[in-house]
């Protein structure tokens, strides 16, 4: 029924029923030109033409198929990449019969070895189906190879060679494409469910190629309609675009930097290819697409370093790339979105100016923050906070009962269990974490608190739903507050509750209550950062000597980021070299050596000890300035002065001077209660439920803006009472909170 409704909208909006054949040819020409532009490379084509063997293969391509073949990025695909490059060059020189003959050799070799057992599509190597190990043909145990990878490459090659294919070759093209598209709603043998999210678009794209090769307008109509059906807000844990601009895949993981990037790119190309045809996207599709592009801009940063050949390059934040952080950056770089094509594809849309603004920002500036997108934004569906300043980007990745922490798939990211444990990345030049994952310690993820070594890290022990629902955040202007209640989802051995406050050039982490541990003999570490070493390290103002120091300290500074502790802590800093082992975490290769800066605090679990601590992180700060201040004079932690309320139920931070527009007060209520601040502008705040509050003073209007959010996603409303020092009468605010897909989002009031 969903598809029918969109079909009807398209028919009314575009009146395309009589023009499908013309549309098919227009789409074919646009797809063809894109393929030729991307793959035209005469030197490579000449090289591969000369190296192809008499049987139509290349000696340096790994043709291993079936059960022994590598599941991730199947190496045999290189056969088709070479065919496509050769075909692109042949297209502009169709008199080159030698090149045509070589292309035909390669086509014939694969088509003659195409598998014939349908169960090999998604059940290869499974004894209960009809494609056990040893079944003849070119197939992979990863369904992706038969549903998306090879059909996509075959379809592209067949499109380029469309006018010179034999009847037998056309039939082979159709067979490979048709059997994938026929399973878009699931495999008849029950081994695979319907395609969703980015995978739905990929298979629909194969359907469009099938329609062109078969000259079938009914398939074209169906495939494009599926595109538009998928570009809508998905609820709950379903794959796809969320109302907050995040994109989720593989059981509620934020994936804007991989599956989401594929989704955005594939949708963009479809919009471009169908521009000025009958297939005009409905208004709802345009809105959803703008939402995911807008959200994704917040998830980007720029690598900016003069001696790096890859800089400057807009890239995805590592926390939105999922398991793909297991790739070397050189194997997986950039955002993979052509911004010129994005503008052209949306040129006729009513919201085109919004796309222009986003592209303008991404194309401007030269530092880590493209276009100077400044502010703080929380994404409630994906439990993700982004804090952006003029010269920095900071991210916080959490997970809850609504989301999962990470994944290992196809042996990629086998040690990623701790990647969402309140992980904080700090980007200043964009190369802080470049290629570090092959060499770093996976128990010491930046910002996390872990019971070191308690949970063995392995591929089958990575992905878990969170155990706690009280995880969320709220942001307004240049400030935000978040809270994460954590219980180890694998063993339950560790628990903690933290609040996070983000303010200009600073973030603050405060524990709420003590750390809970059932493994008292295992050390508990809170990692400040683990990143590439860049310059000297100073501990309490003294230059660090050697590569490892363990000491009681109040401060540590490295590369213009300074960490300050409210009380002295047991600090370990290590700057030693570590050798990478990329094959151990994925498919990238290399064993280069990295000098890594890692700083972590060792918690004291002894009887009577206080195992929690609070700390500031000052970003882009000079060493001299950092050494001369304990904390910013504009920033102070707020302690509850109400004797009748346990201080552990609420945490707060005040920033700026009263009466200034840059004035922020951030409060995290873990239980209902009153917070007696005794500031010169706000004296006290009370709530009737656990809630997060972000106050911002607007001096021009002499009023307060208040953003309110429920981390549990369960409340319908909350009552907040604010006592201003300028008034004897309390201000009572009854705030209705977002629900449904927007649960956990912010409600904003002014007073």
Word description of this protein:
α2 packs across α4 (78-91) and α7 (167-181) runs antiparallel to α8 (197-214). The chain is of the alpha+beta class. The model is unreliable at 1-16 (pLDDT under 50). The protein is built from 14 helices and 33 strands. Helices cover 26% and strands 25% of the residues. Among the domains are: 1-230, Glycosyltransferase, CATH 1.50.10; 637-751, Sandwich (Chondroitinase Ac, Chain A, domain 3), CATH 2.60.220.10. The strands form six sheets. Strands 10, 11, 12, 13, 14, 15, 16, 17, 18, 19, 20, 21, 22 and 23 form a 14-stranded antiparallel sheet that branches. A six-stranded antiparallel sheet has the order 24-25-26-29-30-33, with no helix packed on it. A four-stranded antiparallel sheet has the order 6-7-8-9, with no helix packed on it. The radius of gyration is 28 Å and the shape is globular.
CATH superfamily of the domain at 1-230: Chondroitin AC/alginate lyase
Radius of gyration: 28 Å
Structural class: alpha+beta
Amount of helix:
25-40%
Domain Polysaccharide lyase 8 N-terminal alpha-helical: 140-280
Pfam family, one: Lyase_8
GO molecular function: carbohydrate binding; carbon-oxygen lyase activity, acting on polysaccharides
Keywords: Lyase, Signal
In brief:
It contains 14 helices and 33 strands.
SSE map:
Elements: H1 2-14, H2 20-39, H3 42-51, H4 78-91, H5 97-112, H6 143-160, H7 167-181, H8 197-214, H9 217-230, E1 240-241, E2 247-249, E3 253-254, H10 259-273, H11 283-298, E4 300-303, E5 313-316, H12 339-345, H13 352-362, E6 375-379, E7 384-389, E8 392-397, E9 423-427, E10 449-451, E11 471-476, E12 479-487, E13 494-503, E14 506-511, E15 516-517, E16 524-532, E17 537-539, E18 542-543, E19 548-558, E20 561-574, E21 577-579, E22 593-602, E23 614-619, H14 623-627, E24 635-638, E25 650-655, E26 664-669, E27 673-676, E28 682-687, E29 691-698, E30 703-709, E31 717-724, E32 731-736, E33 747-750
Antiparallel strand pairs: 1-2, 2-3, 4-5, 6-7, 7-8, 8-9, 10-16, 11-12, 12-13, 13-14, 13-15, 14-23, 16-22, 17-18, 17-19, 19-20, 20-22, 20-23, 21-22, 24-25, 25-26, 26-29, 27-28, 28-31, 29-30, 30-33, 31-32
Helix pairs in contact: 1-9, 2-4, 3-4, 4-5, 4-6, 6-7, 6-8, 7-8, 8-9, 8-10, 10-12, 11-13, 12-13
């Amino acid at each position: 029924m969903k598809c029918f409704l969109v079909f009807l909208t398209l028919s009314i909006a575009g009146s395309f029923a009589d023009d499908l054949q013309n549309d098919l040819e227009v789409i074919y020409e646009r797809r063809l030109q894109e393929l030729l532009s991307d793959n035209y490379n005469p030197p490579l084509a000449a090289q591969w033409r000369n190296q192809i063997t008499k049987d139509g293969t290349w000696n340096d391509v790994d043709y291993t198929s079936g059960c022994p073949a590598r599941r991730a990025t199947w190496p045999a695909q290189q056969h088709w990449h070479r065919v496509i490059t050769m075909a692109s060059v042949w297209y502009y020189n169709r008199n080159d019969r030698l090149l045509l003959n070589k292309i035909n050799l390669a086509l014939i070799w694969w088509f003659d070895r195409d598998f014939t057992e349908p169960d090999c599509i998604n059940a290869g190597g499974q004894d209960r189906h009809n494609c056990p190990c040893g079944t003849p043909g070119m197939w992979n145990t990863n369904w992706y190879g038969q549903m998306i990878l090879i059909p996509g490459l075959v379809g592209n090659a067949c499109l380029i060679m469309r006018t010179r294919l034999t009847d037998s070759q056309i039939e082979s093209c159709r067979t490979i494409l048709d059997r994938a598209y026929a399973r878009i709603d699931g495999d008849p043998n029950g081994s695979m469910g319907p395609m969703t999210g980015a995978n739905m678009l990929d298979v629909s794209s194969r359907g469009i190629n099938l329609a062109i090769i078969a000259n079938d307008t009914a398939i074209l109509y169906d495939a494009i309609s599926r595109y538009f059906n998928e570009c809508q807000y998905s609820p709950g844990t379903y794959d796809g675009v969320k109302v907050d601009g995040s994109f989720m895949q593989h059981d509620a993981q934020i994936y804007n930097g991989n599956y989401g990037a594929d989704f955005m790119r594939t949708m963009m190309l479809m919009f471009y290819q169908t521009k000025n045809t009958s297939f005009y996207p409905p208004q709802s599709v345009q809105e959803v697409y703008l939402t995911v592009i807008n959200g994704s801009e917040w998830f980007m940063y720029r690598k900016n370093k003069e001696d790096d050949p890859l800089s400057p390059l807009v890239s995805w934040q590592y926390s939105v790339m999922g398991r793909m952080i297991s790739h070397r950056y050189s194997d997986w770089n950039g955002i993979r979105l052509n911004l010129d094509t994005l503008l052209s594809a949306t040129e006729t849309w009513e919201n085109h100016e919004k796309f222009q603004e986003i592209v303008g920002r991404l194309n401007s500036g030269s530092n880590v923050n493209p276009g100077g997108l400044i502010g703080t934004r929380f994404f409630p569906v994906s439990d993700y906070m982004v804090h952006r300043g003029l010269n920095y980007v900071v991210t916080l990745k959490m997970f809850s009962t609504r989301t999962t922490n990470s994944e290992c798939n196809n042996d990629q990211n086998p040690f990623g269990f701790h990647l969402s444990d309140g992980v904080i990345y700090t980007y200043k030049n964009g190369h802080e974490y470049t290629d570090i994952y092959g060499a770093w310690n996976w128990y010491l993820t930046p910002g996390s608190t872990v019971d070191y070594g308690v949970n063995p890290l392995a591929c089958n022990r990575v992905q878990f739903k969170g155990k706690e629902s009280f995880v969320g955040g709220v942001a307004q202007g240049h400030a935000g507050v978040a809270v994460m209640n954590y219980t180890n989802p694998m063993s339950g051995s560790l628990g903690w509750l933290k609040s996070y406050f983000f303010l200009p050039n600073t973030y603050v982490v405060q524990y709420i209550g003590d750390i809970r541990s059932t493994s008292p003999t295992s050390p508990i570490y809170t990692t400040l950062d683990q990143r590439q070493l860049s310059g000297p390290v100073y501990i309490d103002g003294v230059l660090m000597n050697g590569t490892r120091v363990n000491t009681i300290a109040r401060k540590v500074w490295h590369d213009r980021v300074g960490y300050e502790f409210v009380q002295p802590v047991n600090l370990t800093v290590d700057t030693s070299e570590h050798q990478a082992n990329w094959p151990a975490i994925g498919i990238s290769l290399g064993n280069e050596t990295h000098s890594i800066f890692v700083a972590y605090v060792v918690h004291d679990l002894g009887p009577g000890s206080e195992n929690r601590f609070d700390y500031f992180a000052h970003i882009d700060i000079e060493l001299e300035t950092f050494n001369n201040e304990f904390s910013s004079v504009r920033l102070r932690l707020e302690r509850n002065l109400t004797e009748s309320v346990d201080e552990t139920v609420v945490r707060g931070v005040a920033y700026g001077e009263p009466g200034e527009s840059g004035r922020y007060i951030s409060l995290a209520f873990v239980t209902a209660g009153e917070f007696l601040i005794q500031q010169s502008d706000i004296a006290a705040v009370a709530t009737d439920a656990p809630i997060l509050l972000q106050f911002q003073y607007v001096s021009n209007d002499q009023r307060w803006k208040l953003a309110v959010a429920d981390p549990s996603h369960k409340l319908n409303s909350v009552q907040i009472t604010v006592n201003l020092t300028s008034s004897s009468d309390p201000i009572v605010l009854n705030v209705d909170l977002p629900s449904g897909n927007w649960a956990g989002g912010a409600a904003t009031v002014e007073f």
